[in-house]
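Letters spell out the chain; backbone shape is given numerically. Both lines appear below:
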Amino acid sequence: MGCSLRVAWDEALTTYNFGPQHPLAPVRVELTMALARELGVFDAPGVSFADVEPAGDDLLELIHDPGYIAAVKRAGSTLVPDDPYCLGTPDNPVFPHMHDAAALISGASVAAASAVWNGEAEHAANIAGGLHHSMPKSAWGFCVYNDAALAVAWLLEQGAKRVAYVDVDVHHGDGVQTMFYDDPRVLTISLHESPLTLFPGTGRPDETGGPNAEGYAVNVALPAGTNDRMWLRAFHAVVPPLLHEFQPEVLVTQQGCDTHALDPLANLMLSLDGQRQTYAALHRLAKETAGGRWVLLGGGGYELVQVVPRAWTHLLAEAAGVPLAPDTATPAAWRDFALERTGEHAPLSMTDGRSPDHAPFEEGLDPDDPVDRAIQATRKAVFPCHGIDPTL
């Protein structure tokens, strides 16, 4: 039995494009949608598409300063860098019609949130979204507008009292955390590579929320080299207990797949198969804790052919209620399309050939293991704020 899934999609979402040398290449989204389509994910019962409109200024101003929005429009028109707003940096080059492209991605994430909030679909996705770094008054880390934070802010405007945001990107979800750091209506959880070794240099376990929301910012900072087994151990030691206690009305997730061992910009060692287990776990948690209401967004991922399309196709299939067998072959037509678009030969199947498992953290802490120390630091920092014993 398939789930109800609304996909926010428009070909124009691929116009968010910093140029041919930039790692955030829109072809990764194009290849994802093509692979999901070829594998029949969008033909599953209950899957539909949402119309996408750009977010207007009033909507963007829920999270962004009007002066910054004006600067984005100006930079996309004049192509002149604007240093105070971090527009025109190597990470965030200016490009024509930048505001329009970024506003469309934001609008797509709000469309996904709207479909879930209004009961039009159980789950909703914007695979082009997840731009979680941008700040209220500046671009940051390849992100112009923060569509993830905007989706959460829109839900709060509609009257949501508890929204959980779980971020599994290899980079800390710093922009979303910043925007809701003192708001106990929003529980932000980010699992990421340690700030000691990776951008943006934030996301330590002692970042736990402002005076009015202590314990509502949760950060699991994992050492470089963390593999499937230890990443899954960390996820299950932190995320399920907090979501079960918080009982969100909606679960919003950022699904960056740059945790993969092949990703060129980071240092974690997950496989596609470990990532697929994460998608299934988040799906279960949405059903168990949020009445099934799940808004799923894209995010980072810079191995454009070998990783991103397969990872996010697994994600979409999971959300559609038709998970793909790991040994599913990638269609020849899709491999030909990938070769035509990128000059690169695509993988033959939907697996990396791994069968990851993990030992539950509750069965015993290894004080000499750096991942276990990271887990325990997070649990000690935030679990007591939610009435949960960090030692159990």
The longest helix spans residues 98-117. The CA atoms of residues 365 and 372 lie 6 Å apart. The mean pLDDT is 97.
